[in-house]
Amino acid sequence: MTEMPPIPALEPRGTGHRFVIYGDACAGEPGGRHEASFARVNAVVRRFSPEPEFIVFPGDEIIGLTRDEAALRAQWRHWFDVEMAWLDRDRIPLFHTTANHTTYDPMSERVFAEVMAHLPRNGPPGQEGLSYWVRRGDLLMVFVHTLWSGLGGEGHVETDWLDATLAAHADARHKLVIGHHPVYPVNGFEGPFQREIGPPHAEAFWAILVRHGVLAFLCSHILAFDVQVHDGVLQVTSAGAGTAHRMPEGLEYLHALQAALDDQGFRFRVVDDTGTVREALSWPPVVPPVTWWQELGGGPVDETPVADGPLGASIRFWRIAGHASGGAAQAQTLVEGSAGDDAVPPLWIGLAGPDQRLLVVLGSAPGRSPHTWYGPSLAPGAAFDIQIALHGAMGPGGLLWRWDDASTWSSLRGASAQGLERAAPVTGWTIGHTAVSATDRPFLGSELRVWTTHAPQGEI
User: Fold this and answer.
1) Domain check: are 146 and 29 in the same one?
2) What does the DSSP 8-state code read for residue 398?
3) pLDDT of residue 48
4) Which of 178, 200, 217, 328 has the CB geometry, 3.0–4.6 Å to 444, for a possible disulfide?
5) Quick check: 110 and 58 in contact, CB under 8 A?
């Protein structure tokens, strides 16, 4: 059998951390449905060179979901002793989170804590072996239990201990929080307490991450790769470790993430089960000073498209300022990017509804509905000054907004499984109305001005 060549690992720029993230294998059964696909992903991870310093596995190692304790323990034995036997865990620590296939009732929580006896026992009372923190030099990782039976089960997570732990490690340069369930919906799959953390906890949970300067929340559960940002904190979803059925079909793929942390930020590459790099990101983006941006008056656009696709993608930035109307509800155009034909335009940025909410609409294939993302509302009659970025390497999470240079970026909300890769190249801009005519969805406020620039997404 021919040995496959090494896959170059993503390494920190200077001092930092090199690691791997992958989750949701649902394996553990000899000859089971996902054993072969999990083996393919593991074979790729084994080729990373140099090898990772540690691995983060955010849950669903085994298929679980049985009331037979002996069968559950047998699955864990098969996962560790057979499927993961290749990994020297003394040299490369493997850190886990609880999940819906593995800690679904008090019995399975007890089994998880016993099977994971190698993990720290520094979690909150009642969650010893289920929640914990790890400090590796200037890196703090906090692993949370997003379905604690003592709080209500799936979608319920404790926040007081998380807050106190992050406060106690305020000196950590890099802070990551890891849990199974996302906080924000992924690919339009939304459902509190099943697909993401429920509302009694989600808002407080995210506010804690923001307050303590957490870089990213790493999660899985939704069978996809996804990255978005909210109030400056990334949510990175990686659930491609082996589960054979994927959502949405044809758009997602089995994968593992190479990750690197250093003083310049967080970078990762998404490597599929053939060893091919499919997506990549460097965060935070480097934004040219606003004073360098070009003011648009409509007309031709430079040769840089809205997005170059998921790899090597550029980021297009806008600053849009003006006075909002006194309360118009009809759609109002701020900027339209057209493709010079009669098709639905590739890009429309505007306001709609009685709350004058910011919308970004991306055109799709002929005959298909466009997809919409939404952001903040503008106060009637008030001055506004807002920035928008379209990041070609972030998929549906790459439509971003913030108020000004001093604010943090957030992803606009949407229900699409695709992002800028769906948009056609833009050949011209229209400001304050559509390309159809000056009376088609005009801006009804005053003093509208638009500036734009673009930049590469950064070194990967």
Assistant:
1) yes
2) G
3) 98
4) 328
5) no
Contact 100, 221 (CB under 8 A): yes
Beta bridge partners of 265: 262
Same domain, 279 and 401: no
Q: Which domain holds residue 267?
A: 7-283
> Could you tell me which residues come within 8 angstroms of residue 250 by beta carbon, excluding any fewer than 6 positions away?
none
pLDDT, position 308: 47
- What is 439-453 written as a DSSP string? TSS---SEEEEEEEE
Domain match, 306 and 267 both: no
Flag whether 1 is in a domain. Answer: no
Q: What is the pLDDT of residues 88-123, one digit of tens each?
A: 999 999 999 999 999 999 999 999 999 999 999 999
User: In this structure, what are the phi and psi dihedrals at residue 311, rounded to the nearest 5 degrees?
Assistant: -110, 140
Q: Which of 249, 283, 317 is the last residue of a domain?
A: 283
Contacts 24+ apart (CB under 8 A), 365-371: 365/422, 370/344, 371/414, 371/415, 371/416, 371/418, 371/422
As for how many domains the chain has, the answer is 2
Instruction: Report the run of H or E that residue 207 belongs to, with start and end.
Output: helix 199-211
User: How many whole angstroms separate alpha carbon 324 and alpha carbon 402?
Assistant: 17
For residue 304, how many other CB atoms are within 10 A of its CB?
Answer: 17
Digit-coded pLDDT (tens) for 289-319:
888 899 987 555 555 555 545 555 689 999 9
| CB contact at 8 A, 352 and 330 | yes
Is residue 251 one of the residues assigned to a domain? Answer: yes
Tell whether 312 and 256 lie within a shared domain. Answer: no
239 and 347 together in one domain: no
Query: Is residue 330 domain-shared with residue 271, that is, in the same domain?
Result: no
Last residue of a domain, one of 283, 312, 334: 283
**What does the pLDDT read at residue 420?**
87
The pLDDT mean for the chain works out to 93
What 3-state class would DSSP assign to 387?
strand
Closest CA to 333 of 438, 447, 452, 451: 438
Does residue 65 share a domain with residue 174?
yes
- DSSP label of 196: B
**419-447: pLDDT as tens digits:** 988 777 788 889 999 999 999 999 999 99
Question: The tokens of 353 are what?
Answer: 């509804």
Q: Are residues 97 and 202 in the same domain?
A: yes
CA atoms within 13 A on the CB side of 115: 27
C-beta separation of 48 from 288 below 8 A: no
